[in-house]
C-alpha cells in the first residue's frame, strides 16, 4: 500500500471479488451480524485480526488497542466485551497477543512515554505479578516473548473478572476465553492452552461478584 488512492481501487476489486459468486453478498451483510468470535488484539499493523484467521465480514467482532489490554477501568474494552457477550452472544473470546509487540517492549524499558505511561503500566503490573518467573529468564528475547504470553494470560483473567462474563458463562457455559499469540516471524497462531479452571478457582476466591446467586 503506497498511496491513499490505492485504497479505493482495492475496495472496488474487493467488492467485485465478494460479489462474483454471490451477488447479494453485501445485501445479506446489511441485515445484521451474528459473529461467534470476539477478537481482542494489538493495534499493530502486522496483526490483521480477520486475515490471519481466514475470517470474512460478519464472522468476528474486533477490538484492538496497544498491546491487547483489558484494563480494569477501561470503558472502551469493557463496552466491547459487554456488547459482544451480552448482546451478540459470542461463543469465544480470543485475546491475541503477538511476539515483537512494541507496547510490551516499551513496558520493559526505562523510558518516559508521556500519555502512554499509564496504559503501559498495565503491562508493568503483569511483569510485577510474574517477576520471579520473568527475572529467572536470562535471555532477553525469551523474557520478552514470555511477557507477551503472560500479558495475554492476565488480560484473559481480566475478561473473566467481569460480571457480564461470569453471569453468561454460569448460565450457558459460554463464551470460552482463549489466550493466543501470533508469531509474526512464522505467521503461526499459537494457543497458549491456559488452564482457566485453575484461574477460575482464583477468580472465585477473590473476584466473585455473586453472579451465581
Ligand atoms: Co503489539
What are the defining features of this structure?
five-stranded mixed β-sheet, globular, Beta-carbonic Anhydrase, Chain A, binds cobalt (II) ion, alpha/beta
Can you walk me through this structure?
With 213 residues, this protein is an alpha/beta fold. The chain has 2 domains: 1-31, no CATH class; 33-206, 3-Layer(aba) Sandwich (Beta-carbonic Anhydrase, Chain A), CATH 3.40.1050. It has helices at 6-20, 25-29, 49-53, 75-87, 102-107, 117-129, 131-135, 140-160, 163-172, 196-206; strands at 37-42, 60-65, 92-98, 176-182, 189-191. The protein has a 5-stranded mixed beta sheet with strand order 2-1-3-4-5. Strand 1, helix 3 (49-53) and strand 2 (60-65) form a beta-alpha-beta unit. The mean pLDDT is 95. Cobalt (II) ion (CO) is lined by residues 42, 44, 67, 98, 101-103. The site of cobalt (II) ion has 7 residues, from helix 5.
Write the layout of secondary structure elements.
Blueprint lengths: L5 H15 L4 H5 L7 E6 L6 H5 L6 E6 L9 H13 L4 E7 L3 H6 L9 H13 L1 H5 L4 H21 L2 H10 L3 E7 L6 E3 L4 H11 L7
Parallel strand pairs: 1-2, 1-3, 3-4
Antiparallel strand pairs: 4-5
The structure holds cobalt (II) ion (CO).
Amino acid at each position: 500500500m503506497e498511496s491513499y488512492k490505492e485504497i479505493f481501487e482495492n475496495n472496488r476489486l474487493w467488492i467485485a471479488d465478494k460479489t462474483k459468486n454471490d451477488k447479494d453478498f453485501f445485501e445479506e451483510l446489511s441485515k445484521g451480524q451474528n459473529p461467534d468470535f470476539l477478537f481482542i488484539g494489538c493495534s499493530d499493523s502486522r496483526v490483521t485480526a480477520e486475515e490471519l484467521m481466514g475470517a470474512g465480514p460478519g464472522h468476528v467482532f474486533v477490538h484492538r488497542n496497544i498491546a491487547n489490554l483489558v484494563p480494569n477501568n477501561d470503558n472502551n474494552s469493557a463496552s466491547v466485551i459487554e456488547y459482544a457477550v451480552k448482546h451478540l452472544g459470542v461463543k469465544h473470546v480470543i485475546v491475541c497477543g503477538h511476539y515483537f509487540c512494541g507496547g510490551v517492549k516499551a513496558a520493559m524499558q526505562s523510558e518516559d512515554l508521556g500519555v502512554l505511561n499509564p496504559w503501559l503500566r498495565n503491562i508493568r503490573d503483569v511483569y510485577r505479578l510474574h517477576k520471579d518467573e520473568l527475572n529467572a529468564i536470562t535471555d532477553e528475547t525469551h523474557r520478552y516473548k514470555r511477557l507477551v504470553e503472560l500479558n495475554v494470560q492476565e488480560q484473559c483473567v481480566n475478561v473473566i473478572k467481569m460480571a457480564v462474563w461470569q453471569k453468561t458463562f454460569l448460565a450457558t457455559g459460554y463464551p470460552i476465553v482463549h489466550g493466543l499469540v501470533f508469531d509474526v516471524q512464522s505467521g503461526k497462531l499459537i494457543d497458549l492452552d491456559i488452564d482457566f479452571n485453575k484461574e477460575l478457582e482464583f477468580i472465585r476466591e477473590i473476584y466473585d461478584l455473586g453472579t451465581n446467586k
